[in-house]
Structure formats: C-alpha cells, structure tokens
C-alpha cells in the first residue's frame, strides 16, 4: 500500500517541507522540475504541487496527505483537516493600511480590502458583522493601496519589512496565526500507512526540539537532578563503577538545555554532555 503525499513545489514552505521529508528518511526529487517521486521502499508517492492547491487535492480524496499552510487550508474551504503542526513556515495574517488611517476591524465597513486570502478575510469580516468589498489579488498586495485599488490590505506578515516598504501599518487583532501543517481528508479513516508517515514527521520535530543530555551525579543528588531533567518518559539512571555515583541520560528541550546544565553543575553533576538527536520515535 502506497500513500500519496502532496508536497509544496515552490514558495516559502517548499524548502523546509523537503528538508523535513528528507530527515524523515524519504527520497526527494533530484531536479526541481520533477513533478513526482515514487519511494517504493518507504511506501510513499510524493506529488509536488502549488501549496495553494494542496488542500483541494486532499479534500477531494485524490491524494491522502498534504503539507500546506494553515492559512491556505482555511482559505481553500476544502474538506480537509489539520492533523499536526510542523513547526516551520510560521506567519501571521494581518490587516494593514497607510499609517494612521485605520484602527480596528469595526472601522472597515464599506472599505475596499485587497488580499490573496479572500476566504479567510470574508469569514473574519462576517464574524465581526462588517460589510466590506474584498478584492482577490494574486500577490504584491501591499502595492494595491498606493495604486488606488484598495484602502486596506490583509496579508501574510513574517518580518513586516514588506509592509514598512509600502508605508503600511498593521492594525486590529491577529486574524490568523499560521504555520505549515499536515492535512488529511475530513471525516475519513486515516489511510493505511498514514500512521507510520505521521510518526516519522513527529520524530523529526522531536529530534529538532530535544537534545540528549548525559551527566554523572552523586547518589544523594539523583532525585533533584532527575527533577531538572525528567526526560520524555523517564530518564535512564545507571550506577557508575565509582562507588556512590550514577550516570543519568535524558532527552531535554533544546531551548532550556543550557540553563539545566548550569543548575545540574550547581547540584554537583559533572561530565555534562549534550548531543544532537538525528532521528527518533517517541
Ligand atoms: N514571508 C512569507 N511570505 C509568504 N508566505 C509565507 C511567508 N512565511 C511563511 N509563509 C507561509 O507560506 C504559505 C504561502 O506559500 P506560497 O508558496 O503560496 O506563497 P509564497 O511563499 O508567497 O510564494 P509565491 O508568492 O512566490 O508563490 C502560507 O502558509 C504562508 O503563511
Ligand atoms: O513580512 P515579510 O517578511 O515582509 O513577508 C511577508 C511578505 O512576503 C510575501 O510576499 P511574497 O514575497 O511571497 O510576494 P507575493 O506577494 O507576490 O506573494 C507576503 O505576501 C508578504 O508580502
Ligand atoms: Mg507570496
């Protein structure tokens, strides 16, 4: 049984999605013009598609699984659900207007709003009971205000530098917080082989988020030390040849690892080592 997976072929999500699949042990295309890759050994067939179209293929059941942006999934209205966030391609979706001309969604009544995400914007306006004209543009949305096509835009904001260049300022609440997500068809049992695929990607995320920590610690401090590095399940504690000392091995979050090392040293731990995890199943 082969599962059919939709992978972004271009744009902000493409490189990171490919990298994640590679780390999960799947074959990748060798030429960016290649449209599909069959990896029979791992039971997958990869289809390289425009990220905006991916939810549609998965919603129709043509493909089993997809990697796309949460904002693109919601905008599509496709019958597909987010199964897991993938931790890359993060962005926010915001309103913006020339400095000082708008302050909140309620003030958008009767205004002209340009966006590439008309579905998301219309749903947001409806939620707030605001009637406005939404114009769908393919891209370079920021320029539309200066060219007189719109009063306001709603667009993906990552660093905010495009908005600044266009003399626009964000206003109102965050419409949407997005990142790359794994999607499957709504209301269907997961296809055979999907669970293995999902677990492999989860393994990549965990391997990126955690590091392996090893240290030696006197017996009297083992309990306190283990509280600092509790691991995911439970740390391995094994006796050292040296009387009264133990070796501890645990996975710890990369983010707090250095502080944990300082605290463990204070407690009397020595030979504290951090190593990267290349892959894992948890
Ligand atoms: N700086 C960014 N610009 C656009 N989209 C981004 C950015 N950072 C993350 N993303 C996410 O990438 C997805 C959009 O990808 P898509 O490939 O359609 O657009 P793109 O990266 O703007 O590419 P292009 O406009 O060249 O086709 C969305 O989920 C969006 O939230
Ligand atoms: O906050 P920033 O870091 O500036 O990134 C956000 C900008 O990047 C994207 O544009 P892209 O380069 O994809 O061009 P496009 O509008 O033609 O899609 C997006 O549509 C914003 O314009
Ligand atoms: Mg773009």
TrEMBL record:
It comes from the Bacteria. Signal peptide: none annotated. Its cofactor is Mg(2+). The keyword Metal-binding applies. It catalyses: 1-(5-phospho-beta-D-ribosyl)-ATP + diphosphate = 5-phospho-alpha-D-ribose 1-diphosphate + ATP. Catalyzes the condensation of ATP and 5-phosphoribose 1-diphosphate to form N'-(5'-phosphoribosyl)-ATP (PR-ATP). Has a crucial role in the pathway because the rate of histidine biosynthesis seems to be controlled primarily by regulation of HisG enzymatic activity. This is ATP phosphoribosyltransferase. It comes from Nocardioides mangrovicus. The gene is hisG.
């Amino acid at each position: 049984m082969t599962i059919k997976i939709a992978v972004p072929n271009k744009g902000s999500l493409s490189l990171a999605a490919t990298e994640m699949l590679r780390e999960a042990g799947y074959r990748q295309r060798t030429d960016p013009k290649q449209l599909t890759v069959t990896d029979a050994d791992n039971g997958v067939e990869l289809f390289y598609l425009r990220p905006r179209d991916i939810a549609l293929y998965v919603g129709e059941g043509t493909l089993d699984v997809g990697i796309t942006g949460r904002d693109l999934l919601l905008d599509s209205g496709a019958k597909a659900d987010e199964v897991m966030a993938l931790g890359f391609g993060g962005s926010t979706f915001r309103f913006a207007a020339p400095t000082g001309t708008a302050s909140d969604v309620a003030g958008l009544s009767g205004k002209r709003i340009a966006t590439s995400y008309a579905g998301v914007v219309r749903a947001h306006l409806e939620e707030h009971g605001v009637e406005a004209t939404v114009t769908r543009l393919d891209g370079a949305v920021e320029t539309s205000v200066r060219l007189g096509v719109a009063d306001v835009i709603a667009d993906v904001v990552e660093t905010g530098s495009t908005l600044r260049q266009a003399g626009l300022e964000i206003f109102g609440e965050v419409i949407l917080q997005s990142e790359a997500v794994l999607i499957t068809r709504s209301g269907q049992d997961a296809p055979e082989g999907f669970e293995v695929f999902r677990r492999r990607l989860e393994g990549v995320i965990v391997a990126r988020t955690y590091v392996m920590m090893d240290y030696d610690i006197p017996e009297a401090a083992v309990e306190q030390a283990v509280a600092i590095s509790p691991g995911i399940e439970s740390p391995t504690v094994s006796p050292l040849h040296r009387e009264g000392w133990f070796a501890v091995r645990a996975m710890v979050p990369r983010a707090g690892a250095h502080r944990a090392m300082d605290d463990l040293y204070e407690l009397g731990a020595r030979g504290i080592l951090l190593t990267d995890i290349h892959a894992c199943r948890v």
